[in-house]
Write a structure and sequence with these properties.
By secondary structure, the protein is mainly α. It contains twelve helices and no strands.
Length: 289
Protein backbone atom coordinates (compact mmCIF):
# COMPACT_ATOMS: atom_id res chain seq x y z
CA UNK A 1 0.00 0.00 0.00
CA UNK A 2 1.35 3.38 -0.93
CA UNK A 3 1.37 5.88 1.92
CA UNK A 4 0.23 9.39 1.28
CA UNK A 5 0.94 12.59 3.13
CA UNK A 6 -2.01 14.65 4.32
CA UNK A 7 -2.04 18.17 2.93
CA UNK A 8 -4.35 20.65 4.67
CA UNK A 9 -6.61 22.52 2.29
CA UNK A 10 -5.63 26.08 1.44
CA UNK A 11 -7.92 29.01 2.07
CA UNK A 12 -8.79 29.21 -1.62
CA UNK A 13 -9.57 25.46 -1.74
CA UNK A 14 -11.72 25.71 1.37
CA UNK A 15 -13.90 28.45 -0.06
CA UNK A 16 -13.95 26.83 -3.51
CA UNK A 17 -16.32 24.15 -2.26
CA UNK A 18 -18.73 26.61 -0.68
CA UNK A 19 -18.59 29.42 -3.20
CA UNK A 20 -16.18 32.18 -4.07
CA UNK A 21 -13.48 33.48 -1.77
CA UNK A 22 -14.41 36.57 0.22
CA UNK A 23 -13.38 39.82 -1.43
CA UNK A 24 -12.27 43.00 0.26
CA UNK A 25 -14.60 45.68 -1.07
CA UNK A 26 -13.79 49.37 -1.14
CA UNK A 27 -16.92 50.02 0.92
CA UNK A 28 -15.53 47.73 3.59
CA UNK A 29 -12.25 49.64 3.55
CA UNK A 30 -14.09 52.94 4.00
CA UNK A 31 -16.16 51.50 6.85
CA UNK A 32 -13.08 50.18 8.64
CA UNK A 33 -11.35 53.55 8.29
CA UNK A 34 -14.40 55.29 9.71
CA UNK A 35 -14.39 53.00 12.74
CA UNK A 36 -10.65 53.46 13.17
CA UNK A 37 -10.72 57.25 12.99
CA UNK A 38 -13.76 57.64 15.23
CA UNK A 39 -11.97 55.61 17.91
CA UNK A 40 -8.92 57.90 18.01
CA UNK A 41 -8.93 60.12 21.10
CA UNK A 42 -6.91 62.80 19.32
CA UNK A 43 -9.59 63.08 16.61
CA UNK A 44 -12.41 63.43 19.14
CA UNK A 45 -10.46 66.01 21.13
CA UNK A 46 -9.67 68.02 18.01
CA UNK A 47 -13.32 68.07 16.94
CA UNK A 48 -14.46 69.15 20.41
CA UNK A 49 -11.92 72.00 20.48
CA UNK A 50 -13.05 73.04 17.03
CA UNK A 51 -16.71 73.18 18.04
CA UNK A 52 -16.02 75.18 21.20
CA UNK A 53 -13.68 77.62 19.45
CA UNK A 54 -16.11 78.19 16.59
CA UNK A 55 -19.08 78.76 18.89
CA UNK A 56 -17.05 81.20 20.98
CA UNK A 57 -15.92 83.20 17.97
CA UNK A 58 -19.46 83.27 16.56
CA UNK A 59 -20.82 84.55 19.87
CA UNK A 60 -18.14 87.22 20.01
CA UNK A 61 -18.69 88.40 16.44
CA UNK A 62 -22.51 88.43 16.80
CA UNK A 63 -22.29 90.47 20.01
CA UNK A 64 -19.76 92.88 18.49
CA UNK A 65 -21.78 93.46 15.31
CA UNK A 66 -25.08 93.97 17.15
CA UNK A 67 -23.33 96.37 19.52
CA UNK A 68 -21.94 98.31 16.57
CA UNK A 69 -25.42 98.60 15.05
CA UNK A 70 -26.76 99.98 18.32
CA UNK A 71 -23.80 102.34 18.71
CA UNK A 72 -24.38 103.76 15.24
CA UNK A 73 -28.07 104.22 16.00
CA UNK A 74 -29.24 101.83 13.30
CA UNK A 75 -32.64 100.20 13.46
CA UNK A 76 -31.78 96.49 13.24
CA UNK A 77 -35.28 95.65 12.05
CA UNK A 78 -34.85 97.98 9.06
CA UNK A 79 -31.37 96.94 7.93
CA UNK A 80 -30.99 96.40 4.15
CA UNK A 81 -30.81 92.90 2.74
CA UNK A 82 -27.10 93.04 1.95
CA UNK A 83 -26.31 94.13 5.50
CA UNK A 84 -28.29 91.23 6.97
CA UNK A 85 -26.59 88.78 4.62
CA UNK A 86 -23.18 90.15 5.50
CA UNK A 87 -24.02 89.86 9.18
CA UNK A 88 -25.04 86.20 8.87
CA UNK A 89 -21.95 85.31 6.85
CA UNK A 90 -19.65 87.10 9.25
CA UNK A 91 -21.10 85.38 12.30
CA UNK A 92 -21.28 81.90 10.75
CA UNK A 93 -18.02 81.86 8.76
CA UNK A 94 -15.86 84.38 10.60
CA UNK A 95 -14.02 81.59 12.41
CA UNK A 96 -13.21 79.51 9.32
CA UNK A 97 -9.85 81.15 8.43
CA UNK A 98 -8.70 80.76 12.03
CA UNK A 99 -10.05 77.23 12.45
CA UNK A 100 -8.30 76.15 9.29
CA UNK A 101 -5.22 75.25 11.33
CA UNK A 102 -7.28 72.88 13.51
CA UNK A 103 -8.73 71.20 10.43
CA UNK A 104 -5.23 70.92 8.97
CA UNK A 105 -4.02 69.29 12.19
CA UNK A 106 -6.99 66.92 11.98
CA UNK A 107 -5.83 65.85 8.53
CA UNK A 108 -2.28 65.38 9.77
CA UNK A 109 -3.42 63.17 12.67
CA UNK A 110 -5.43 60.88 10.39
CA UNK A 111 -2.36 59.40 8.73
CA UNK A 112 0.62 60.42 10.88
CA UNK A 113 -0.86 58.58 13.88
CA UNK A 114 -0.60 55.36 11.87
CA UNK A 115 3.14 55.82 11.40
CA UNK A 116 3.85 56.98 14.96
CA UNK A 117 2.01 54.01 16.47
CA UNK A 118 3.12 51.44 13.90
CA UNK A 119 -0.50 50.75 12.93
CA UNK A 120 0.36 51.40 9.30
CA UNK A 121 1.79 47.86 9.09
CA UNK A 122 -1.46 46.38 10.38
CA UNK A 123 -3.47 48.55 8.00
CA UNK A 124 -1.44 47.37 5.03
CA UNK A 125 -1.68 43.77 6.20
CA UNK A 126 -5.47 44.09 6.21
CA UNK A 127 -5.53 46.05 2.94
CA UNK A 128 -2.43 45.09 0.93
CA UNK A 129 -3.36 47.34 -1.96
CA UNK A 130 -2.24 50.75 -0.79
CA UNK A 131 -4.36 52.92 -3.09
CA UNK A 132 -7.76 51.79 -1.69
CA UNK A 133 -6.50 52.24 1.87
CA UNK A 134 -5.24 55.74 1.10
CA UNK A 135 -8.42 56.81 -0.66
CA UNK A 136 -10.49 55.27 2.11
CA UNK A 137 -8.73 57.44 4.68
CA UNK A 138 -9.07 60.53 2.49
CA UNK A 139 -12.80 59.98 1.90
CA UNK A 140 -13.53 59.43 5.60
CA UNK A 141 -11.44 62.49 6.52
CA UNK A 142 -13.22 64.67 3.94
CA UNK A 143 -16.61 63.48 5.20
CA UNK A 144 -15.75 64.11 8.85
CA UNK A 145 -14.32 67.54 8.05
CA UNK A 146 -17.31 68.51 5.88
CA UNK A 147 -19.88 67.38 8.46
CA UNK A 148 -17.99 69.15 11.24
CA UNK A 149 -17.76 72.33 9.18
CA UNK A 150 -21.48 72.10 8.39
CA UNK A 151 -22.29 71.83 12.11
CA UNK A 152 -20.07 74.83 12.85
CA UNK A 153 -21.79 76.92 10.17
CA UNK A 154 -25.26 75.91 11.36
CA UNK A 155 -24.34 76.75 14.96
CA UNK A 156 -23.01 80.11 13.77
CA UNK A 157 -26.21 80.85 11.87
CA UNK A 158 -28.30 79.91 14.92
CA UNK A 159 -26.24 82.23 17.10
CA UNK A 160 -26.54 85.04 14.55
CA UNK A 161 -30.33 84.69 14.39
CA UNK A 162 -30.56 84.54 18.19
CA UNK A 163 -28.79 87.89 18.42
CA UNK A 164 -30.57 89.43 15.41
CA UNK A 165 -33.91 87.72 14.60
CA UNK A 166 -34.51 90.07 11.66
CA UNK A 167 -31.75 88.22 9.75
CA UNK A 168 -33.65 84.91 9.75
CA UNK A 169 -35.29 85.71 6.43
CA UNK A 170 -31.91 85.80 4.64
CA UNK A 171 -30.69 82.37 5.74
CA UNK A 172 -31.69 80.77 2.44
CA UNK A 173 -30.49 83.59 0.21
CA UNK A 174 -27.99 82.71 -2.50
CA UNK A 175 -25.23 84.77 -0.92
CA UNK A 176 -25.55 83.13 2.50
CA UNK A 177 -25.87 79.62 1.08
CA UNK A 178 -22.84 79.96 -1.20
CA UNK A 179 -20.85 81.56 1.61
CA UNK A 180 -21.70 78.66 3.91
CA UNK A 181 -20.81 76.17 1.16
CA UNK A 182 -17.54 77.97 0.53
CA UNK A 183 -16.54 77.81 4.19
CA UNK A 184 -17.35 74.09 4.34
CA UNK A 185 -15.37 73.30 1.17
CA UNK A 186 -12.46 75.42 2.37
CA UNK A 187 -12.16 73.65 5.73
CA UNK A 188 -12.52 70.20 4.16
CA UNK A 189 -9.80 71.01 1.62
CA UNK A 190 -7.46 72.28 4.33
CA UNK A 191 -7.95 68.98 6.17
CA UNK A 192 -6.98 67.11 2.99
CA UNK A 193 -4.03 69.47 2.59
CA UNK A 194 -2.72 68.46 6.01
CA UNK A 195 -3.44 64.83 5.17
CA UNK A 196 -1.28 65.07 2.06
CA UNK A 197 1.59 66.81 3.85
CA UNK A 198 1.61 64.17 6.59
CA UNK A 199 1.53 61.37 4.02
CA UNK A 200 4.61 62.82 2.33
CA UNK A 201 6.57 63.54 5.52
CA UNK A 202 5.21 60.70 7.70
CA UNK A 203 5.64 63.02 10.66
CA UNK A 204 3.07 64.70 12.90
CA UNK A 205 5.36 67.61 13.79
CA UNK A 206 6.46 68.12 10.20
CA UNK A 207 2.91 68.03 8.87
CA UNK A 208 1.64 70.52 11.44
CA UNK A 209 4.60 72.81 10.77
CA UNK A 210 3.91 72.83 7.05
CA UNK A 211 0.19 73.48 7.53
CA UNK A 212 0.83 76.31 9.99
CA UNK A 213 3.51 77.81 7.77
CA UNK A 214 1.33 77.74 4.68
CA UNK A 215 -1.81 79.08 6.33
CA UNK A 216 -0.42 81.68 8.74
CA UNK A 217 3.29 82.34 8.20
CA UNK A 218 3.40 82.58 4.41
CA UNK A 219 0.72 85.33 4.22
CA UNK A 220 2.79 87.40 6.65
CA UNK A 221 5.81 86.97 4.41
CA UNK A 222 3.81 88.17 1.43
CA UNK A 223 2.71 91.24 3.40
CA UNK A 224 6.35 92.18 3.80
CA UNK A 225 7.00 91.44 0.14
CA UNK A 226 4.15 93.77 -0.84
CA UNK A 227 6.30 96.68 0.36
CA UNK A 228 8.70 95.98 -2.51
CA UNK A 229 6.11 97.11 -5.05
CA UNK A 230 6.42 93.95 -7.12
CA UNK A 231 3.21 93.51 -9.08
CA UNK A 232 3.09 89.74 -8.79
CA UNK A 233 3.03 89.73 -4.98
CA UNK A 234 -0.61 90.81 -4.40
CA UNK A 235 -1.78 88.53 -7.21
CA UNK A 236 -0.09 85.46 -5.76
CA UNK A 237 -1.15 86.31 -2.20
CA UNK A 238 -4.82 86.22 -3.27
CA UNK A 239 -4.39 82.54 -4.12
CA UNK A 240 -2.95 81.51 -0.76
CA UNK A 241 -5.29 79.25 1.26
CA UNK A 242 -6.25 81.88 3.85
CA UNK A 243 -7.13 84.45 1.18
CA UNK A 244 -9.11 81.83 -0.73
CA UNK A 245 -10.99 80.96 2.46
CA UNK A 246 -11.95 84.60 2.96
CA UNK A 247 -13.14 84.85 -0.64
CA UNK A 248 -15.23 81.69 -0.37
CA UNK A 249 -16.82 82.73 2.94
CA UNK A 250 -18.10 85.92 1.28
CA UNK A 251 -20.36 83.88 -0.99
CA UNK A 252 -21.00 84.14 -4.70
CA UNK A 253 -21.42 87.90 -4.94
CA UNK A 254 -20.72 89.92 -8.07
CA UNK A 255 -18.04 92.18 -6.63
CA UNK A 256 -15.61 91.98 -9.54
CA UNK A 257 -12.92 90.69 -7.20
CA UNK A 258 -10.08 88.50 -8.37
CA UNK A 259 -10.27 85.58 -7.90
CA UNK A 260 -14.01 85.10 -8.24
CA UNK A 261 -15.93 82.71 -6.00
CA UNK A 262 -15.79 79.74 -8.37
CA UNK A 263 -12.16 80.31 -9.32
CA UNK A 264 -11.33 80.37 -5.60
CA UNK A 265 -13.26 77.10 -5.20
CA UNK A 266 -11.12 75.50 -7.93
CA UNK A 267 -7.91 76.92 -6.47
CA UNK A 268 -8.51 75.55 -2.96
CA UNK A 269 -9.39 72.16 -4.47
CA UNK A 270 -6.02 72.17 -6.24
CA UNK A 271 -4.28 73.07 -2.97
CA UNK A 272 -5.80 69.91 -1.49
CA UNK A 273 -5.26 67.68 -4.53
CA UNK A 274 -1.56 68.29 -5.12
CA UNK A 275 -0.20 67.27 -1.67
CA UNK A 276 -2.67 64.39 -1.48
CA UNK A 277 -1.48 63.08 -4.84
CA UNK A 278 2.15 63.38 -3.76
CA UNK A 279 1.31 61.56 -0.54
CA UNK A 280 -0.17 58.65 -2.50
CA UNK A 281 2.93 58.51 -4.71
CA UNK A 282 5.18 58.37 -1.63
CA UNK A 283 3.03 55.68 0.00
CA UNK A 284 3.21 53.49 -3.11
CA UNK A 285 6.92 54.00 -3.76
CA UNK A 286 8.41 53.69 -0.26
CA UNK A 287 8.45 50.99 2.36
CA UNK A 288 5.87 51.51 5.10
CA UNK A 289 8.40 51.28 7.93
Amino acid sequence: MTSSTYTPPTTRQTFAGSGSAPKLSFGGVVKSERIKLSSLRSIRTTLLITLLASAGLSLLSAWAMKSSFSYEGLDVSALPVDALQSYLLTVSTFASPFLALIFGVLGVFVISSEYSSGMILSSLAAVPRRTPMYFGKAIVLAAIAAVTALVLVLVGLAIGIAFLPAAAGEVFSGTVLTGALGAIVYLACVALLGFGFAAVLRSTAGGIALVAGLIFVLPIGFQFLSMTGWEWVPTVSQYLPMSLGSTLSMGDVATGSDPTYWVAMLAIALWAAVPSTLGLAVLKSRDAK
